[in-house]
Amino acid sequence: MITTEQLEKFKAIYRKEFGKDISNQDALDSATKLVNLMRIVYKPITQKDYDEFKKRRISKAHISRQID
User: Which of 31, 33, 38, 50 has a CA 20 to 30 Å removed from the CA of 66?
Assistant: First the structure.
């Protein structure tokens, strides 16, 4: 849920970035979509995932050196 204060901050940022005012409804729709997008896209990496990433990176670097 987006609070009234958060909505006003969103509208101020929108005004600053795009040079125009938007209605409360448009701001609420846009802010909600942004929050939902961030929920989908942002996922903190776990230690296990980070360790696997490091292994793949080292492996790729090793293969690359063998090819060169």
Answer: 50
- Per-residue confidence (pLDDT) for residue 52, from 0 to 100: 94
Query: Is residue 1 pLDDT above 90, yes or no?
Result: no
Look at the chain and report how many structural domains it folds into. Answer: 1
**Dist CA 2 CA 27 (whole Å):** 10
Q: Which phi-psi region, left, alpha or beta, contains residue 21 (left: φ > 0; alpha: ψ -120 to 50)? A: beta
Dist. CA 10–CA 52, nearest whole Å: 38
- Gap between the Cα atoms of 7 and 9, Å rounded: 5
Residue numbers of the domain that contains 13 = 4-67
